[in-house]
Fold this sequence. Notes:
The complex is a heterodimer. By secondary structure, chain A is α/β, with parallel strands linked by helices. Chain A is 22% helix and 26% strand.
Amino acid sequence: xxxxxxxxxxxxxxxxxxxxxxxxxxxxxxxxxxxxxxxxxxxxxxxxxxxxxxxxxxxxxxxxxxxxxxxxxxxxxxxxxxxxxxxxxxxxxxxxxxxxxxxxxxxxxxxxxxxxxxxxxxxxxxxxxxxxxxxxxxxxxxxxxxxxxxxxxxxxxxxxxxxxxxxxxxxxxxxxxxxxxxxxxxxxxxxxxxxxxxxxxxxxxxxxxxxxxxxxxxxxxxxxxxxxxxxxxxxxxxxxxxxxxxxxxxxxxxxxxxxxxxxxxxxxxxxxxxxxxxxxxxxxxxxxxxxxxxxxxxxxxxxxxxxxxxxxxxxxxxxxxxxxxxxxxxxxxxxxxxxxxxxxxxxxxxxxxxxxxxxxxxxxxxxxxxxxxxxxxxxxxxxxx
Amino acid sequence: xxxxxxxxxxxxxxxxxxxxxxxxxxxxxxxxxxxxxxxxxxxxxxxxxxxxxxxxxxxxxxxxxxxxxxxxxxxxxxxxxxxxxxxxxxxxxxxxxxxxxxxxxxxxxxxxxxxxxxxxxxxxxxxxxxxxxxxxxxxxxxxxxxxxxxxxxxxxxxxxxxxxxxxxxxxxxxxxxxxxxxxxxxxxxxxxxxxxxxxxxxxxxxxxxxxxxxxxxxxxxxxxxxxxxxxxxxxxxxxxxxxxxxxxxxxxxxxxxxxxxx
Lengths: 385, 262
Ligand SMILES: Cc1cc2nc3c(=O)[nH]c(=O)nc-3n(C[C@H](O)[C@H](O)[C@H](O)COP(=O)(O)OP(=O)(O)OC[C@H]3O[C@@H](n4cnc5c(N)ncnc54)[C@H](O)[C@@H]3O)c2cc1C
Ligand SMILES: Nc1ncnc2c1ncn2[C@@H]1O[C@H](COP(=O)(O)O)[C@@H](O)[C@H]1O
């Protein structure tokens, strides 16, 4: 609970200004806390010049003893015969965290035929790989993948579990966290260790990237996070790295599932997955006609990138729905993002803020997209492309 | 068929602005709306009811003013709304939220189908749907962009979207689905619906009404804690390139080369 010491509060309003959650108001020269809105983030405590604010955490819960919980785990994503790029990024990040905690990195690899990839995980940073390779894992189901990972974790007690914030990771990892009754932070963009208590500092964007929140899970293990693809950097393949590969046959009870995958359809438009692409060229309504998609595609192919769309374009069915970027579509973080004929509506822009360089082409000089762009080109998309 | 739709009231993205200098949210003019994906969940529920009969109940956990969101859902065709509101719920993370919602769904039992949005646009976690299903002990399918019922009225045939395309999956009810915006186009409220919503009385369920364990709800039931927040600095390195189209493109290529991207 956030407590205001009335004797010290001078009603200056610094806390009110600093609060991102509208949880403090100065009324009659004293700060009043709205407990419904307060998230106990502590920002106000830091800004108070009079030390009049204090966070009192629940005394009843003494921090547990977590000495049995050791190791950093990465839930590898194996799909269509290969390991996702985000898994390699996570192995490198897990290595850094494990170094700070003086522990080892374990990858958990699940899927039919997945064992062929175990050595790749070692070469990219795993000290140990737990492999569950079984025909029942041919198709991804939340039940089987979630139950196996939860079962491994309950028995081996890792301190940290990381997974990619992909469609798959964000679907089955919450199952694992709920089974293990522990915290889970979604879509992190930065991780670190607080040495005093081995807490995982998990930083993630909220409110469409307008706010960054750092989150911890102090009284539960494992500490779990999904991590946005493309923000961490993978280590190069190192054929000399050594690691242990352990094949585990999952208990038949863990392989039961009531969701059946009848058919799996690939609709890859072109280039790599949008969420992992290094270069994205996006078509907005300003490309004017469906046939101009070809111009956009040409540029994206030339740059070895992927093609994205605004909702206006997917609504017009010029491009399939999964190319839509933004609040109700995919969030992307490429090195280079080129927006062609995109106005820059907030619902679109929140999905591209992780991009390193944003280039916008628009014939309207006052289009909002230019406010978010590194480089702007005022002109007709057809001509520029 | 008894359908429960979980909805959340969120700040309207169009009205939220941030003061990058002070690092805070600008509150003036922020409006609360139903989370956009939840509008699709409501629509999906109402369409199923219209086709197969049954009843749609919308549930939200939130402050007293979240009643507005429930009323709006009634105007959109839902039959009942229930507000889970209690000081003790405040500060809940996804684990505490799913516990609370599960208690409410259990109180409404038997429930055939639970619908959620893919994610709430304020927190963006996409964790509440899956977590709630696990709590309820029912299967779930996320990122659903199409749905139909088999002839047996028990088997759902679903299109589950992912990065590479989609899967067609089947599951028997009871089940929980999280839906994408592409699943349907939410209707606009009818005049009759609006009138009915206006007159409707929304029951409020407290922690004790739910028989909730106080250690599992709100801040006390939340393993995660926010330790700090900050506003990312937006390096508005905005540069408008000059000249003819050719010159502008050349200038861009130069800069991209400099940045080591080309
Ligand atoms: C709840 C909700 C969720 C949404 N979610 C998303 C989302 O996830 N993603 C998303 O993209 N949108 C989303 N939207 C829609 C969003 O608000 C905008 O409507 C959409 O992004 C606009 O797309 P656009 O920029 O392609 O089209 P427009 O807004 O029509 O802009 C076209 C631009 O092209 C320029 N132009 C026109 N002709 C030319 C030319 N010849 N050469 C150069 N420039 C030209 C114009 O000046 C204009 O700036 C959402 C909306 C709502 C209400
Ligand atoms: N407080 C809440 N009350 C009711 N439903 C919620 C609440 N929070 C989240 N949900 C549901 O869970 C979905 C995912 O939310 P989130 O996990 O917060 O991204 C939303 O689209 C809602 O359907």
